[in-house]
Specification:
Blueprint: H1 18-28, H2 34-41, H3 48-63, E1 66-78, H4 104-116, E2 121-126, H5 135-144, H6 149-162, E3 166-170, H7 176-182, E4 188-190, H8 215-227, E5 232-238, H9 244-261, E6 264-271, H10 288-302, E7 307-309, H11 319-325, E8 329-333, H12 350-359, E9 363-367, H13 385-405
Parallel strand pairs: 1-2, 1-8, 1-9, 2-3, 3-4, 4-5, 5-6, 6-7
Helix pairs in contact: 1-2, 2-9, 3-10, 8-9, 9-10, 10-11
């Protein structure tokens, strides 16, 4: 699938002066050049405050000073995965200690707990294409009455809707037919692009043993989701061996896809976290400055109307910095389940996050798994309109009570 920008050119363009690059990105966004984004991704520490002011100002003009989060339950339907990324502790082989596939009773139990705790999103998260690699997993699926993981996930989504939660599924790379199958029971789907650089698939690189991390495959799925008018979440993962320029390449690739279809409802800038027992255990994590640069450039490239998110549990000491850099969303926060992808990183307490936001001049509010601008007939299956409206009204009533109390 061709892209409008020449990502990964053999001879990168000359990097312009910081001030010139910043002016053009503020004015033109993704219509500015890659060279301008490269300049900002590599800006000096002395220039960082100016970059953050520009990105934060763009957010303020389009989004105001209100940031959001989604109250969710994290349901890791299965952690069996055919990919072996060098930074992942989530994935397992069948029979390996810690491998699981959630049974129906367990899913129902967690959905009931989530509803009791006021959750409104059910995040379905799982490994890539496990049935394509493991006969033992195919046997587990057969016991559940299915030949396809996507079919089982669809049943889990139906269970979530019956429990008055809105499903959002991140099931790795899906075909058009699989997305069509999930669309009626999901208010949004997701797939992290992570990187647009094929270099990370080379021998010795973090995606060498991860066929589903081929950038062309992931870009093709995001493009297909746009053709299907599915509200979509994607993003980049920084610190896994990519260069600052490759971070910009990935953001421009996302911007190109959104320009075609208008379906990308949020973009996550996520940072690599080192963990024991992974091949990248001793790789340095991105610095606070790296994250701030990436978030600010994402805001400038993707524009003021995009919802830009950074995970608060992966950046517990940098919430104020991320607000300055231009985010307007914190993503999902769960009162009932941990972050199974980053189990060492506890979710922040919403009350403390709200206090930090207030100290920086922001308000914090809850949102649904589908953003308001995508809760409309051309993006939502008709069967989802009623539950979306009902839960949106519940949030509005809660917000009105908070305002009245103050």
């Amino acid at each position: 699938m061709p892209l409008d920008h020449d990502r990964g050119a053999a001879d990168p363009p000359p990097v312009p002066p910081f001030t010139d690059a910043l002016e053009r990105l503020v004015e033109y966004g993704a219509n500015a050049s890659l060279a301008d984004a490269y300049a900002l991704m590599r800006c000096r520490d002395d220039d960082l405050p100016v970059l953050l002011d520009a990105a934060g100002g763009l957010r303020d003009r389009h989004k105001g000073r209100h940031v959001t989060y989604s109250r969710k339950v994290f349901l890791p339907i299965t952690n069996v995965c055919r990919d072996r990324c060098s930074y992942c502790t989530f994935r397992k082989d069948p029979g390996e200690p810690g491998a699981w596939t959630m049974r129906r009773a367990e899913i129902r139990d967690w959905l009931a707990r989530a509803r009791a705790q006021g959750c409104k999103e059910a995040l379905m998260c799982l490994g890539d294409s496990p049935e394509a690699a493991f006969p033992a997993y195919r046997a587990t699926l057969a016991e559940l009455g299915y030949a396809s993981t996507v079919d089982y996930v669809r049943e889990a989504c139906e269970m979530a809707l019956a429990a008055d939660l809105l499903p959002h599924t991140n099931a790795g790379v899906l075909s058009r037919a699989e997305m069509e199958h999930l669309r009626p029971v999901n208010v949004s789907l997701g797939l992290m692009l992570e990187s647009a650089s094929p270099r990370l698939r080379a021998r010795g690189m973090p995606h060498h043993h991860a066929p589903d991390k081929e950038p062309a495959r992931r870009l093709a799925m995001i493009d297909e989701a746009g053709r299907l008018r599915i509200p979509f979440t994607t993003g980049i993962l920084i610190g896994i061996g990519e260069t600052p320029e490759e971070r910009a390449d990935a953001l421009f690739a996302i911007a190109d896809l959104h320009a075609r279809h208008g379906h990308i409802q949020e973009v996550i800038v996520q940072n690599f976290r080192a963990k024991d027992a992974i091949p990248m255990a001793n790789v340095p994590e991105p610095s606070s400055g790296d994250m701030a640069r990436a978030v600010a450039v994402a805001r400038l490239v993707l524009g003021g109307d995009m919802n830009v998110q950074a995970p608060p549990n992966l950046n517990p000491d940098d919430h104020r910095l991320l607000l300055r850099a231009g985010i307007n969303d914190w993503g999902g926060i769960s009162p009932v389940t941990r972050d199974y992808v980053n189990p060492e990183a506890a979710w922040p307490q919403v009350s403390l996050l709200a206090a930090t936001c207030r100290a920086e001049g922001f308000t914090l509010g809850e949102r649904l798994a589908v953003y308001p601008e995508y809760a409309r007939p051309d993006f939502l299956d008709p069967t989802l309109s009623a539950p979306v409206e009902r839960l949106a009204s519940r949030i509005a009533r809660k917000d009105s009570h908070v305002v009245a109390a103050h």
